[in-house]
Design goal:
Strand content: under 5%
Radius of gyration: 11 Å
Structural class: mainly alpha
Mean pLDDT: 77
Distance between the termini: 17 Å
Largest sheet: none
Number of helices: 2
Low-confidence stretches: none
Helix content: 55-70%
């Protein structure tokens, strides 16, 4: 999933920020990873 997203370089900074924020949130809260 992340690989396919990386291939699409048309993503805006807002998209990248939300993606990175969500990933960081997953790393910081493994319990929320259902």
């Amino acid at each position: 999933m992340v690989g396919s997203m990386m291939r699409t370089k048309k993503m805006s900074r807002e998209d990248w920020k939300s993606l990175v924020d969500s990933k960081i949130w997953e790393w910081k809260t493994p319990a929320a990873h259902h």
